[in-house]
Amino acid sequence: VQLQESGPGLVKPSQTLSLTCTVSGGSITTNYYYWSWIRQPPGKGLEWIGDITYSGNIYYSPSLKSRTSISRDTSNNQFSLQLSSVTPEDTAVYSCTRRLGNAMDYWGKGTLVTVSS
């Protein structure tokens, strides 16, 4: 299984960050996998953003829920992240992962998104 993030590397403050994760080698609708977005700001730890499940259920981090939207395109085997009203504090390496239970077994390489004017 391979995951690849794509999207702009630079976003202006107050705008919306949009990323897509393209999955190959496995279907995002396969029982019972969760497909997750994770981020890591420079010099800080990993932060879970949210999941979309094999059945399309969506879960968000409470701290980001008001600004986050996760969706999927099953025909293209992709899932996406939108984070609105970004600030420089949203600057981070954003990664998509596959999760089964508590184990994230496959990760994308991650993409650095910088929020700056």
Task: Give the CA-CA distance, first to last residue.
Answer: 36 Å
Task: Give the strand content.
Answer: over 45%
Order of helices and strands: EEEEEEEEEEE
Helical residue percent band: under 10%
The structural class is mainly beta
Notes on the protein architecture:
The chain has 117 residues and is mainly β. Helix content is 0%, strand content 54%. It has strands at 2-6, 10-11, 17-24, 34-40, 47-53, 58-60, 68-73, 78-83, 92-100, 103-107, 111-115. Strands 2, 4, 5, 6, 9, 10 and 11 form a 7-stranded mixed β-sheet that branches. Strands 1-3-8-7 form a 4-stranded antiparallel β-sheet, with no helix packed on it. β7 (68-73) and β8 form a beta hairpin. It is globular and about 40 Å long. The termini are far apart.
What's this, in brief?
The protein has 117 residues and is mostly beta strands. The protein contains no helices and 11 strands.
Question: What structural keywords apply?
Answer:
single chain, mainly beta, 117 residues, seven-stranded mixed beta sheet, four-stranded antiparallel beta sheet, globular
